[in-house]
Amino acid sequence: MNPIPGCGGGGWTLVMKIDGNKNDFNYSSSYWTNKAVYKIQDGLEGLTEKQTKLASYWNTPFRKICLGMKVNNQTRWIALDYAASSLYNVIGEGSFKSTSAGKEAWKSLITGSALQENCNREGFNIKVASESEDFATYVHVRIGVVANNENDCVSCDSCIGFGTSAGCHNERRMTTCGNMGICNELNNKNTPAFGFILVQ
Predict the structure, then answer these.
(1) Which of 108, 121, 129, 161 has the fewest CB atoms found within 10 Å of its own CB?
(2) What are 103-113's pLDDT values in tens digits?
(3) Is the dihedral of CA 15, 17, 20, 23 positive or negative?
């Protein structure tokens, strides 16, 4: 695949394309934890806006990941240095693994994005939840970053990422890729994106 702005030279292999307005790739989807493909033909088209999951999810070793989000016909990209035998081996068994791109890099994926000030935990398989007698919130992210207004990572309620799920009391956000704020001062922040995941 040709060079991608923000990710450097060519040689990228497409792994997944995710429509943030659809529920096929939410955090709990079995596509993150299995070796099943999803609409191969739509993946062979390249960087079109059609969802896909290719066999490259489990059979392609890499040293870099290229992540893109398209909102309002603008696609922005970041690259992560991360080495693994496959993305399936990073995500499939569910444990958290950290990355170090930095909060501003994640925010740069979407113009006008917003995150709270604290926590800023980033990586793979981020799963945070807080529950009390009168309050419950959760944010789950397969690849991305979560943030909090409080100075901890227990009750995070904003995120930017891929494979996302979030809830607050009885509200459930169906956005599966993009930027969300829920149960907080960013409660109106809900920006679905069309996401691209490539490896090299």
Answers:
(1) 129
(2) 999 999 999 99
(3) negative
Q: Write phi, then psi, for 89 (nearest 5 degrees).
A: -70, -20
Burial zone of 171 (CB within 10 Å; 0-12 exposed, 13-18 middle, 19+ buried): exposed
Q: Give the H or E element holding residue 107.
A: helix 103-107
- Let me know: does 15 contact 195? Beta carbons within 8 Å: no
Contact of 177 with 197, CB cutoff 8 Å: no
DSSP state of 190: E
Dig out the tokens for 188 from the structure: 């109106």
**CA separation (Å) from 17 to 13, 50, 52, 83, 100?**
12, 7, 5, 21, 23
Among candidate residues 9, 25, 23, the one with its CA nearest the CA of residue 196: 25
pLDDT digits (tens, 9 = 90+) for 140-186: 999 999 999 999 998 898 999 999 999 888 788 889 999 999 887 77
Would you list the DSSP string of 31-80? GGTS---B-HHHHHT-SSSS-EE-THHHH--EEEEEEEEEETTEEEEEEE
Q: What is the distance in angstroms between the CA of the first residue and the CA of the last residue of the chain?
A: 10
